[in-house]
Amino acid sequence: MQEAIADGVNGLLADFFDPEDIADKVETALDNLQDMARLRANARDTILQRYDLATLLPQQMAWLLGEAPAQSATHPVAS
Question: What is the C-alpha to C-alpha distance for residues 62 and 25, in angstroms, rounded to an integer?
Fold first, then answer.
């Protein structure tokens, strides 16, 4: 998930195989509600900027049709 989440910026990352780390992140979230509001807002901004359907759908359709999609300034299409 590191490609979508920046720890402490737009979410909290924990080691999937470390229950103590997961519990620590949950405790951090519950103890810092103001900080979590900022993370939630940043997470929403990330999704809207990177995964907006109006941007991604034309790119995916062009890919499916074998056409070269237009490059996005913020997220160029890998070749």
Answer: 40
Q: List CB contacts of 14: < 8 A, sequence separation 6 or more.
A: 21, 22, 24, 25
Judged by DSSP in three states, 7 sits in strand
Helix (H) or strand (E) holding 23: helix 19-31
* Interval 13-72: pLDDT, tens: 999 999 999 999 999 999 999 999 999 999 999 999 988 898 889 989 999 999 876 665
pLDDT in tens, 29-38: 999 999 999 9
Give the C-alpha separation, 17 to 8, whole Å: 19
